[in-house]
Write a structure and sequence with these properties.
Among the domains are: 29-88, Alpha Horseshoe (Serine Threonine Protein Phosphatase 5, Tetratricopeptide repeat), CATH 1.25.40; 244-337, Alpha Horseshoe (Serine Threonine Protein Phosphatase 5, Tetratricopeptide repeat). Helix content is 79%, strand content 0%. It contains 19 helices and no strands.
């Protein structure tokens, strides 16, 4: 009896010595998202929305919206941010994220207001500045778009000159995107190499899980017709996050460039299984249909992409091609106008 009691006490003591499992943190949830474990990330972010710290709740809403976007649940992503803004209406991160989501849905006027509101709170907010740059570009205001992109180049240089380099991966990614636009418009070919070898490389040094850096490297390399290195970059991104739908589309675009239609269609389908509303994947599938002369099927894909963002010129241009092929002159003229 005594030996049994001692054994029981030993078991209880050992159990008491085991520390309780820590609650998931914002860092944990972000890593789940970056690694493509979207449902786990979603669950963790939703749990963090109940945190007593308002800043944690706001960051959780931001992260949740990104996770929902990765799954193609754009309305829910917007809803997560809108709900959080009711408690923190002056949160610059949430306002900038609201602007980003509104821009992605083609709601330019309200996106601009949200970006302006974010910059009133934080005049150097990177995401808000990037949304402004995209809006200027897409409206055809290239002078202001170029100035907005130059802001990122100057910000990066100033931090370097002050021996205070930018280390945040999200900010560095925007520096790369804006720098590439600036290089395109001003014929700065050397800048592309700097973005690939310095900016995006620094991101991966800071966070090896940040697959968007590899993805954007692949996109830039593919733009420059370096298909081999682009595919290498896409594969590296997929090692980090096999559920990065955008990367599968990138590989599909590379396949289409080589007229590998079956591979391009397969990769588009793979992306759409992850995010059934991804405009890039829908456009890729439409391109495959157009390549074989099936404008009707292409139009169905493009109509779905247009529902996500009715103002994306990449979608509208393809719709114009379909209307031209179908000899729908009046609809084509209306769309062009």
């Amino acid at each position: 009896m005594r030996s049994a009691l001692c054994a029981c006490l030993l078991v209880l003591g050992a159990a008491a010595a085991v520390p309780a499992a820590e609650e998931p943190s914002l860092k944990d949830a972000r890593q789940r998202w970056l690694r493509g474990n979207y449902e786990e990330a979603r669950s963790q972010y939703e749990g963090l929305l109940a945190d007593k710290d308002p800043k944690v709740k706001a960051a959780a809403a931001f992260g949740l919206s990104r996770t929902l976007e990765s799954l193609g649940e754009y309305d829910k992503a917007q809803g997560a941010v809108e709900t959080a803004l009711k408690e923190r209406p002056k949160d610059a991160d949430l306002l900038a994220r609201r602007a980003e989501l509104l821009y992605l849905r083609g709601r330019w006027d309200v996106a601009e207001k949200a970006a302006d509101a974010a910059l009133e709170v934080s005049k150097d907010h990177f995401l808000a500045h990037w949304v402004q740059a995209e809006l200027y570009r897409d409206r055809g205001d290239l002078k202001n778009a170029d100035a907005a992109c130059r802001w990122f180049v100057r910000a990066y240089s100033q931090h370097e000159d002050n021996d205070d380099p930018i280390k945040d991966p999200d900010q560095l990614l925007l520096v790369g995107l804006a720098g590439a636009e600036n290089a395109r418009w001003n014929n700065l070919s050397d800048q592309f190499g700097f973005i690939l070898n310095e900016v995006y490389a620094d991101i991966l040094k800071a966070d090896k899980s940040f697959w968007p850096a590899e993805y954007q490297s692949g996109v830039l390399l593919l733009e420059k017709y370096n298909r081999g290195e682009a595919l290498d970059a896409f594969e590296k991104a997929l090692v980090i996050n096999p559920n990065a739908a955008e990367v599968h589309v990138g590989k599909g675009v590379a396949a289409l460039m080589k007229l590998e239609f079956k591979d391009a269609e397969r990769l588009a389908e793979k992306a759409l299984k992850i995010n059934p509303n991804l405009p890039e994947a829908l456009r890729l599938r439409a391109d495959v249909h157009l390549a074989v002369g099936d404008a009707a099927k292409a139009m169905r894909e493009l109509d779905q992409a247009r529902k996500v963002n009715p103002r994306d010129e990449r979608t509208l241009a393809r719709i114009a091609v379909c209307l031209q092929l179908q000899a729908k002159k009046d609809e084509l003229e209306a769309l062009t106008k």
